[in-house]
């Protein structure tokens, strides 16, 4: 089993984590003004690159914090040392 | 808690009370290599504070001891322990405080510094493993629990078998031991897992 490095807890087994999808998807500034199509793009449409992909991960079984990590979708290898959520108190 | 309200006080039962004998038998079966003990319920408060603010110092002054500053470490205070669960989260335990009063009091201190405190006394129950604790837990835990990697003063939230647990090392000081804090509903599973694993430590006839 591969180890994922939590910015707080350090390297832990993959089963302690859950996947949170693409990182950096901003919530629309004015959700009410979006067309249905624009809303669908925000809710459902994600990049699907072959290669490095910035993702959100949650350390469920440990510190329960979210962080962003870059993973290569071809090899499943984590490329960056993850950075923690800047919103510490969220 | 000997007060005039004693007749109305509910006495908490340990969720593993019915396994007490099973756990105690492990010491005999392993010829004293490992001992499993239930711990009396303690008051526990979950504390959320900005670590960069003035909150941690205020709580430390109130507790009479510093909060742990390093990730995944615990410190002792006069009536219990403080375990660091995350960047902005601590678990405080006390054998002396009344849970409701302690929550109220700590929350007053924390709120003044933008934080909060919540009573979580019923959230976890506690088992203590003495003797070959690290070897026993290694049968169901992926963490490196050797003393060099997980020395006295360390704690960690992780998985033991399929159950989430909070481990703390060396609460006794001189004797090597591990404390396992686990959700009451998972406690029986963890206890059975440990009793099962202890079979590996039963001395074999030569
Ligand atoms: Zn973590």
TrEMBL record, chain A:
- Gene3D superfamilies in the cross-refs: Folate-binding superfamily
A Pfam family this chain is assigned to = SoxD
InterPro entries this protein is in? SoxD, SoxD_sf
What name is this protein filed under?
Sarcosine oxidase subunit delta
UniProtKB/TrEMBL annotation, chain B:
Coiled-coil regions, chain positions:
none
SUPFAM superfamilies found in the cross-reference section: Folate-binding domain
Task: Tell me which InterPro entries the record gives.
Answer: SoxG (IPR007375), TrmE/GcvT-like (IPR027266)
Q: Report what the protein is called.
A: Sarcosine oxidase subunit gamma
Q: Species lineage, top-down?
A: Bacteria, Bacillati, Actinomycetota, Actinomycetes, Pseudonocardiales
């Amino acid at each position: 089993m591969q180890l994922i490095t939590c910015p707080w807890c350090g390297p832990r087994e993959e089963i302690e984590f859950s996947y949170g999808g693409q990182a950096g998807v901003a919530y629309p500034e004015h959700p009410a003004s979006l067309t249905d199509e624009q809303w669908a793009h925000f809710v459902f449409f994600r990049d699907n690159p072959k290669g490095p992909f910035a993702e959100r991960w949650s350390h469920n079984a440990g510190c329960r914090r979210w962080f962003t990590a870059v993973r290569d979708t071809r090899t499943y290898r984590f490329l960056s040392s993850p950075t923690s959520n800047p919103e510490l108190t969220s | 808690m000997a007060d005039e309200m004693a007749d109305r006080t509910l006495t908490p039962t340990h969720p593993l009370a019915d396994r007490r004998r099973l756990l105690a038998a492990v010491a005999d079966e392993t010829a004293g290599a490992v001992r499993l003990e239930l711990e009396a319920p303690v008051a526990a408060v979950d504390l959320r504070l900005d670590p960069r603010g003035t909150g941690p110092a205020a709580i430390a002054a109130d507790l009479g001891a510093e909060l742990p500053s390093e990730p995944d470490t615990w410190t002792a205070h006069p009536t219990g322990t403080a375990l660091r669960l995350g960047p902005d989260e601590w678990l405080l335990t006390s054998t002396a405080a009344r849970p409701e009063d302690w929550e109220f009091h700590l929350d007053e201190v924390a709120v003044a510094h933008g934080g909060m405190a919540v009573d979580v006394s019923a959230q976890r129950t506690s088992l203590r493993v003495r003797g070959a604790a690290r070897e026993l837990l290694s049968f169901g835990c992926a963490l490196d629990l050797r003393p060099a990697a997980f020395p006295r003063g360390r704690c960690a939230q992780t998985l033991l078998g399929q159950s989430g647990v909070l481990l703390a090392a060396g609460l006794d000081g001189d004797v090597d031991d591990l404390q396992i804090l686990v959700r009451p509903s998972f406690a029986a599973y963890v206890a059975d897992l440990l009793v099962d694993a202890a079979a590996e430590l039963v001395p074999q006839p030569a």
